[in-house]
Amino acid sequence: MIDTQVSGGSTAVDDGDRFVLEIVPVGENIRTARLFGASIARHFRCDEEQVEDLKLALSEAVGRALRNLPAASLSATIRVTAVKAGSGLTFAIESPTVEEVEAPAAEPEVEPSEEELIMALFPDASFEGSGGYTEFTLLLP
Amino acid sequence: MDIYTAGKLRDAVNETVENSRYRLAVDLADMEFMDSSGLGVLIAALKRLKEHDGELVLVSPRDQMRRILKLTGLDKILTIAERLDEVTA
User: Could you point out which of A53, A64, A139, B28 has its C-alpha 20 to 30 Å from the C-alpha of B37?
Assistant: First the structure.
């Protein structure tokens, strides 16, 4: 197991076919999550289109978690886990228990939701709570 | 552009509109990534500019950006130009 302390309040763990990133819930770390996912996808030789899809889905999922994080949980971490199983690489994004919150004031109605975008990229995606858990699987080449 | 950085574009758009400039071109040539937070800002900008009979043009979006625009159907709503000189000519 390799446990690496990453700058910006992040920790990454590589445990063979299981990779874990824990980030403090600040906006800067969405990029960290994207880079983490992209590195793993490239490690498993995914093509760049898959990598871009993954980065977008991770950005949406971590953004969703951040946006809906209860104020009391700001000292907690958001965990991004990637597990290789067979020909799939499943990503799970977990944040502390999230209270059901009212939807934020709508910008324009045509703006796609985070869930819609993730589903468009990964139709198997599943969601729990208002941002507390997101999971989707990338099919490996 | 994500939830962390989208505010900068929102502020720039707001400043432009407040200065009564309603034709806006956003040069995306150097933008490597955009998620729904960025799209939300662009759509809000379009809506605000249209209120003043204005226009929003996205210039030179990269492949990732084109993909998300197509995926969301926003490529049919937003105007895209290949080069900045097409807009400024």
Answer: A139
